[in-house]
Amino acid sequence: MSCSAPADQPVDRPVDGAADRSAVPASAVRRRPWRTAALLLGVLAVLPASALTACDGGVRGTPGGFGVRDPYFPKLGNGGYDVRHYGLTLAYEPGGHRLTGTAVITARATQDLSAFDLDLKGLTVEKVTVDGEAARWNRAGQELTVRPRDEVSAGGTFRTTVRYSGTPVTVTDPDGTEEGWLRTGDGALALGEPTGSMAWFPGNHHPSDKASYEVSVTVPEGLTAVSNGELRSERTAHGRTTFVWRTAEPMASYLATLAVGRFEVSRSVTDDGLPVCTAVDPALAADSRAVLAELPEIVAWEEKTFGPYPFSSTGAIVDRLDGLGYALETQNRPVFPGAPDTGTLVHELAHQWYGDSVTPESWRDMWLNEGFATYAEWLWDEDHGGDPAQRTFDALYDGSWFDADADGGGEQGAEAMWAFPPAKPPGAAQLSDSPVYLRGAMVLHKIRQKVGDEAFLGILRGWAAAHRHGNADTAGFTAYVEKRAPGEDFSGIWRDWLYGDGKPDRP
Ligand code: ARG
Ligand code: ZN
Fold it and tell me: Which of 29, 189, 326 best tests ligand 1's pocket when mutated (most atoms within 8 Å of CB)?
């Protein structure tokens, strides 16, 4: 070994991407995330994966490299391995805003690796081991590059342990909204779409790499820590309580959450025996009670419409985050930054099928999440005495929907809908804009018009079943629809509604 840097010492100084962290204040409560003002696109400086190939010390293989070629976030995720399981042992002190963590990441190598990257933003890395042996590592921006002492061979499973601590950062998205680690009045909330998860644990933070999780969180006694999956244990000793949450079904890291604070936790089961766990900030309990009481009925209606619920529990987290402006479909248990309304609850729960179980292959496929979850709202309305989806479609097409909706943005909103096609957002700042949500839902309605109600519901259900717990992309979806309705010609829908610029002509 010819390297001079001793093991478990950083080879380089951390250089955190300050350019990614512009402080843009979130506006007042926005129910619809696409209304976010389009704000500065972070400088996507392409950093070399490693300045450290000179130091391979005879270890066979090549570096896995940073990024997995996401069209919008080239540095997101990492090459050369596939994570199977994250074991996170965390402690958080809300007083000092201090997080202490150990991440044990079990992964399978997809090539002989001399080095590999993890994504981590902020925080201080104290020690890294690979299969129990101290490893060298360095940091550059969001890349934590690890060089194991011994080779990691293709096909083999290896375990990386990262010990870290610090004050986690809030990340500002390219569209100006906030995610990552968010402070609340009584604790904190971790949200990860699209890139915030790297603010609280190191990992392969691209939606294409899903894994199971066990998250153990220790907080001061009297506070509660809520995450995804099911609570396995809760123990109090010496003034601290440790909550252990386990997520057995594969989860993309942007869907991982952690809420620390005072919560009213309630547990029940649906008529089908599905465990329900809701955690509500006491200040929002009264305003949330009625809508959360609808949750079992919404899940039952969605099962009837979309097929079997994909996970082993459901629920919701309602926390106080005035000004956050969006809810998030965190797995099992979506997060609401205030008391939800029925439509938003329907939307986030529909994501459990479309987004959480069937996850986009890359961020370009975001409309497969948002178009479907939006269409779920239309279908819910149609089935519950509201407007039929056809009327919603027509009102969007002629623009009248935007006058009627206080939040819709009037004429400007009506125009913004046609700014780009749902399957081709122009940049990372537009991923949550209205064409992805509303025009995405209109694509689904066009398919329904062509094939009829029964075949359309068969497509919705079949798509969820075909890619259950997996990943899928837009080309896979169009091919799937064509296979389900072989006699029909969808080419005009794909050309004009899915991929085409401008407002399509009315047929
Ligand atoms: N996926 C969330 C939803 O259910 C919205 C997330 C918005 N995030 C953002 N960075 N703009 O619609
Ligand atoms: Zn959504």
Answer: 326
Q: Count Cβ atoms within 10 A of the Cβ of residue 171 and give its class: 0-12 exposed, 13-18 middle, 19 or more buried.
A: buried
**Phi, psi dihedral angles at 419 (to 5 degrees):** -65, -30
Contact 441, 455 (CB under 8 A): no
For the residues 309-313, what does the mean pLDDT come to? 98
Pick the CATH number of 1-262 from 2.60.40.1730, 2.40.10.10, 1.10.10.10, 3.30.70.20: 2.60.40.1730
Whole-number Å distance, alpha carbon 293 to ligand 2 midpoint, is 21
Q: Which residues contact 324 (CB under 8 A, 6 or more apart)?
A: 26, 29, 177, 178, 182, 337
Residue 316 β-bridge partners: 278
Q: Are 196 and 190 in contact (CB under 8 A)?
A: yes
Could you give phi then psi for residue 386, rounded to 5 degrees?
-95, -160
pLDDT tens-digit map of 289-300: 999 999 999 999
Does domain 359-498 fall under CATH 1.10.390.10? My reply is yes
Rounded Cα distance between 20 and 141, Å, is: 10
Ligand 2 geometric centre to CA of 350 (Å): 9
**b vs e for 33-47, b when ≥16 Cβ sit within 10 Å of the residue's Cβ?**
bbbbebeeebebeeb
The type of residue at 316 is A
Q: Work out which ligand 1 atom sits closest to the CA atom of 431.
A: 11
CA 457 to chain centroid, in Å, comes to 26
- Does ligand 1 have an atom closer than 6 angstroms to the CB of 225? no
Q: What pLDDT does 406 receive?
A: 64
Q: Whose CA is nearest to atom 2 of ligand 1?
A: 328
| pLDDT confidence of residue 457 | 98
Domain boundaries, the chain: 1-262, 359-498
Pairing of strands 133-134, 358-360: unpaired
pLDDT at 28 over 50: no
pLDDT tens-digit map of 52-73 = 343 445 678 999 999 999 999 9
Q: Is the peptide bond before 194 cis (omega within 30 degrees of 0)?
A: yes
For residue 44, is pLDDT > 80? no
